[in-house]
Sequence to fold (288 residues):
Amino acid sequence: MDFLRPQTWADALAAAADRPDVVPVQGGTDVMVEMNFDLHRPTALLDLNPITELTTWEENPDGSLRVGAGMPYVRIIAELGDRLPGIAQAARTVGSPQIRNRGTVGGNLGGASPAGDLHAPLLACGAIVEAESAARGTRMVPAEEFYVGVKRHCLEPDELIRAFHVPSATGPQYFSKVGTRNAMVIAVCSFSLALFPAERRVGTGIGSAAPTPRRATAAEEFLAAELDWDGPLDDAVARRFGDLVREAASPIDDVRGTADYRRHALAVMARRTLAWSWRDHRNNGEAA
Ligand SMILES: Cc1cc2nc3c(=O)[nH]c(=O)nc-3n(C[C@H](O)[C@H](O)[C@H](O)COP(=O)(O)OP(=O)(O)OC[C@H]3O[C@@H](n4cnc5c(N)ncnc54)[C@H](O)[C@@H]3O)c2cc1C
Fold:
């Protein structure tokens, strides 16, 4: 096995172009586990760790954030928790401190597992993936177009993820996950909600309950039409929202849970995250 260790982003793109068989590795918390279990024997690894710009973040001119693909979860939580509360909440549920120290959003995206925890908040917040190749340059892929199948994303073999872009929160955001225990667990299903009060809009993301992470678009449209942003949350609206989120899922029965249970849990999480968000919204955006 070849081990490639480019020192610059340009060299990493060149290596990905020269060797379509190469497997990028950032934190290695997915790649190394697959190798240890002999599930995957890459002919070449492309270690992105020397490229320090992947571990930085900055504010874009429009106020949104550009977060490097290789920024580990611990730093997202510590440095961006106030601006990206939904993403930070999901990051706090990933694995253990050791995994959060190494694991990255770029790696979660690269694996594109329907059970990856960051996909739901990325969808809810309207994140955009910055991908790049030596041959074609940069392209910006909205999160909802990124996932194309079970553990499959839309990137070409010569493309690498450089960063993700996401607006700073302008309203409450929540992430909720059901697992068979409290930590170190693959989600049975997950749900994320983001309120955009100035736009009178709600974003959603469903995890681990369909072949790909997905938005509950009909549920978002329902809330945009029915929410009274200046009043209390109507229980019937919250219930209908939960029903529409449940209907947006297409889960399977597997070792972690049944499809019926996942649908039920999603409706509950949707209602709860809406209630929590509404409480914060009515509390002038401050979490209680
Ligand atoms: C004990 C344990 C517990 C875990 N718990 C959770 C959990 O609770 N929730 C969860 O979602 N995940 C969990 N995981 C999985 C893993 O930690 C996450 O998916 C993490 O985000 C992967 O990030 P990484 O940087 O380690 O990725 P890596 O292992 O380095 O890479 C993962 C994939 O992304 C690709 N990749 C990496 N960087 C790039 C890039 N810049 N461009 C293109 N492709 C790239 C790799 O080729 C590979 O296919 C767990 C793993 C372990 C071992």
The CA atoms of residues 147 and 153 lie 4 Å apart. The mean pLDDT is 96.
